[in-house]
Design brief:
- Belongs to the [NiFe]/[NiFeSe] hydrogenase large subunit family.
- Its cofactor is Fe cation; Ni(2+).
- It is an enzyme of class 1 (oxidoreductase).
- GO terms for molecular function: ferredoxin hydrogenase activity; hydrogen dehydrogenase activity; nickel cation binding.
- This protein has helices at about 40-45, 55, 65-80, 85-115, 130-135, 135-160, 180-210, 210-215, 290-295, 305-315, 325-345, 365-370, 410, 415-425, 435-445, 450-455, and strands at about 1-5, 15-20, 30-35, 165-170, 170, 220-225, 240, 250, 260-265, 275, 285, 375-385, 385-395, 400-405, 465-470, 475-480.
- It is α+β, with helices and mostly antiparallel strands.
- It has a single domain, classed as Orthogonal Bundle (Cytochrome-c3 Hydrogenase, chain B).
- A hairpin with a 2-residue loop joins β12 (about 375-385) and β13 (about 385-395).
- α4 (about 85-115) runs antiparallel to α11, α5 packs across α6 and α14 packs antiparallel against α15.
- The chain is globular.
Length: about 475
Amino acid sequence: MKQIEISPVSRIEGHAKITVQLDDAGNVSDAHFHVMEIRGFEKFLEGAAVEEAPRITPRICGVCQTAHHVVSAKATDAVFGLEPPETGKKLRELSLLGQYIHSHALHFYFLGGPDLVLGPDSDPAERNVVGIIKKNPDLAKMAIKTRKIGQEITTVVGGKPIHPVTSIPGGQSKVLTSGERDALLPKVQEGIGLVETGLEVAKPLFETYANEIESLGPVETYFGSLTNGGALELYDGPMKIIDKNGGAVTEFDTVNYLDYIEEKVQPWSYMKFPYLKQIGFPEGNYRVGPLARLNIADSVNTERASALFGEFKDNFGTAQNPLLYHYARLVELMYCVERSIQLLEDDSITSTDIRTDLSEPLMSTADAKNSDEKMRGVGVIEAPRGTLFHDYETDGAGIIQKANLIVASGQNNLSMDIGVRETAKAMIKGDEVSEGLKNRLEMIVRAYDPCLSCATHMINGESSMLLDIHDSDGSLIKRQLI
């Protein structure tokens, strides 16, 4: 047996590789997407005061920081039984939209985009952000300006450009002043034209690479996302599941997510494999993120994004092809700019009523040690990469005893693995594999924009990893679980 290895998978957040096993005839016998890093934040949270979780969890990732910050605050709201005032919720939503703007712009133009702008078969030395800058410097500048808008929102609303701090139990710790709002609004309004310019460049690419869209990463799955009466929703609401044809399967209150979602461990990866519990593994494979959200939504409540959404649905229906995640990101990018403008033009956004205080004191730590009282809070939002769950269980003093984080990239893990395997079987014949073909396998993974630092929370002893030992000729001499 021979093995082809692509390591590392480039232009993603985190560390991963792809392996392809060939039989003696040169046909693919198996292939996998491997995630080899360990982060362990579920364990790091144990023993911390739950009100510190919104400060700790943004450190999971410098890209997904705001999503973890906001969802953690929502979970602490639930622990303490607090309902934030409307302005507090709007400020949280605005900070989350800032995350989307900078994350979607970063991924499409600088991580996923080089495959489309420069071509899957282009020189890997040029197929990156530097190549984008050389080929189309105006496009690169436009992408940087778009991303900067998101960072401006994070800085003003979140208090810091990296690892925001203003979402706290019961709401927000910082108001948005009229002066800050007036300074921020024209910067965000500029984003409309920037996104439109990007779309003029991007849309033809989906026609140019129609064959790749059709052939790379084939998989048909269920989809899941939050919903708001059928409209695209990012901050709140129940979770809806649809089947591969777009038919509704179930809709549930996110506090009950464990009745519907279960996780499985496989020996080739430290990232878990969530699936729909009532359907089973692997048949219950489902995906989340931009493609899932557009598949599930019936409408988008902003003008330009609604028109883009209509085009998307007319062209693709309930879309399955992973590369269409890129297209869906652009629709969402427009929505997030428009929705940010809506919030900033709402006079209530500068209200000082931003937090609900805790009315009842907690137990002392000493009393909590002698008590069986537990508190639990579940927070769920739509992060840029998909549905994000934070679930904290505390003692009576509010000290975290157990934390469960189900991250979007984990929910897409099985689809990435299947997509790599099925594409490898279809395209690889023999052990001479071109650079372009290897890159096409990477493109499948990049389409999901995985954030592996966010998604790997297991620690040694909880699962096993498959170790392959090869001799100097590349022959497999030993395989064991570690």
